[in-house]
Design a protein that fits this description.
This protein has a domain at 271-451: Glycosyltransferase (Alpha/alpha barrel), CATH 1.50.10.10. The two termini are 30 Å apart. Helices cover 47% and strands 10% of the residues. It is globular. The chain contains 16 helices and 16 strands. The strands form seven sheets. The chain has a three-stranded antiparallel beta sheet with strand order 7-10-11, with no helix packed on it. A three-stranded antiparallel beta sheet has the order 12-13-14, with no helix packed on it. A two-stranded antiparallel ribbon has the order 1-2. The longest helix is centred in the last third of the chain and has 22 residues, at 294-315.
């Protein structure tokens, strides 16, 4: 981390991302120093206070949301909230540096206007940080809102209410959980109407565009001190639906979570779904019925099994890295995990090592440290460049050279989760069971009962 952040400073200081092969920076998020802000709490937890202080100096002198200008002027409300707002809030929670709160309130107020774009309070997905025109949903969605995007803003805005004393952030963001309509089995459609909360397509997934809605049901309940029972009830009902309709096992015993398209199972699982290993186990250890209850034990076993499958998605490949998603041969045994031709790439994603960290912290099983070390070694071998890290285009090919993009989540999430996995002393400062909740970008914030 010290090495790669030093190279970010040398080649791309203040840019959204370091490009690891061309050795320069670029601004795919409109120029708001996303890698710098996203990395703040990683630096703090690692004790890299010099780098942290230099980053604070840049924020004081140069972070101006009025000048953010991506290609069409719009930013993603979801991505900006989890990366930039979450990064500012978590670093403020740890350091109490006043400028971080100041910038978080500024950014939060700009993003918060997205909640005014529909009559029932479902936020739009894109907004201009410097004002008009009005928020909108991306054209490719057909005007629909995406489940994950509207339901993965609450941890951040609830925390903003906590530190400002303004309850409106929490009230408006929590309202989304009340107006989105689940199916009878507790699962939610991925494409929904911003005006009614009803489905616009029949796709159900815990992967891309759906995933973190389910995560925030549980995490907001934990964040609030486990008192908002309606959130836990929605989460538990959704997990019943996952077990009933989506959780699958191949003939070889590999457990995975399928997608559901128009009522038909699609036997695939995104790497993004690998967060569910940790979520299942966190849900089991916080179950109001107790860890020894049948429900908690069912979810504990599912979380362990999903995490093992995600590990296998790595180690069965020649590079030791996972594809973006896997297909599953239901009749297969040794060959039941298959790399799809349209997504054989790895882009430094964090979800599997996230589950390693959570399972290690909660169960104490040292095998997850060994698993994480193997993944880390594969990243070092195949993704490292002269100045940073890049993804590879085909995990089956050991001769691939890294590509020219290092997303901010690599330093914010993948590096942080690996570090916390390898250093339990640092991990104890952000205890997922007793003191902290991590947003979906791996930004830990204290639970409200810890203030």
């Amino acid at each position: 981390m010290k090495w790669v952040y030093g190279n970010y400073k040398k080649y791309a200081w203040g840019k959204d991302e370091l490009r690891p092969t061309s050795k320069d920076g670029h601004d795919p998020w409109g120029g708001m120093g996303v890698t710098l802000v996203d990395s703040l709490d990683t630096l703090w937890l690692m004790g890299l206070k010099g780098e942290f202080d230099e980053s604070i100096d840049w924020i004081k002198s140069s972070l101006d949301f009025n000048t953010v200008n991506p290609g069409d002027g719009y930013v993603s409300v979801f991505e900006t909230t989890i990366r930039s707002l979450g990064g500012l809030l978590s670093a403020y929670d740890m350091s109490q540096e006043p400028v971080l709160k100041e910038k978080a309130v500024d950014l939060g107020d700009r993003l918060f206007k997205a909640f005014d774009c529909s009559g029932i309070g479902i936020p739009c997905g894109q907004i201009r940080l410097n004002g008009n025109p009005a928020p909108k949903n991306a054209g490719w969605t057909g005007g629909a809102s995406l489940l994950a995007e509207v339901g993965t803003l609450q941890v951040e805005f609830r925390y903003l209410s906590k530190i400002t004393g303004n309850p409106t952030y929490k009230e408006k963001s929590d309202h989304v959980f009340d107006v989105i309509k689940p199916q009878g089995d507790g699962l939610y459609y991925t494409f929904i109407s911003k005006d009614t909360g009803e489905r616009k397509q029949d796709k159900i997934t815990l992967g891309a565009m759906g995933d973190s809605y389910y995560e925030y049901l549980l995490k907001c309940w934990i964040q609030g001190g486990m008192k908002e029972d309606h959130l836990r009830e929605k989460y538990d009902k959704a997990m019943e639906g996952v077990h009933k309709r989506l959780l699958q096992k191949t003939a070889g015993g590999t457990v995975f979570i399928a997608d559901l398209n128009s009522g038909r199972l699609d036997y695939k699982m995104d790497h993004l779904v690998c967060f569910m290993g940790g979520l299942f186990v966190l849900g089991a250890y916080t179950d109001p019925l107790g860890i020894d209850s049948a429900r908690a034990q069912r979810d504990l076993r599912a979380g362990i099994d999903i995490t093992e499958t995600c590990y296998q998605m790595y180690i069965r490949q020649p590079t030791g890295l996972s594809p973006e998603y896997a297909r599953f041969n239901m009749g297969g045994t040794s060959n039941d995990i298959q790399v799809p031709g349209d997504a054989p790439h790895y882009i430094l994603r964090p979800e599997t090592v996230e589950s390693f960290f959570i399972l290690h912290q909660l169960t104490g099983d040292e095998k997850y440290v060994d698993m994480g070390w193997k993944v880390f070694q594969a990243i070092e071998k195949h993704c490292k460049t002269e100045v940073g890290y890049g993804g590879i285009r085909d995990v089956r090919n050991t001769n691939m050279r890294p590509d020219n993009r290092m997303e901010s989540f690599f330093l914010a999430e993948t590096m942080k989760y690996l570090y916390l996995l390898f250093d339990p002393t640092s991990a104890s400062k952000v205890d997922v069971l007793h003191t902290h909740v991590f947003n979906t970008e791996s930004h830990p914030m204290r639970r409200f009962d810890q203030f």
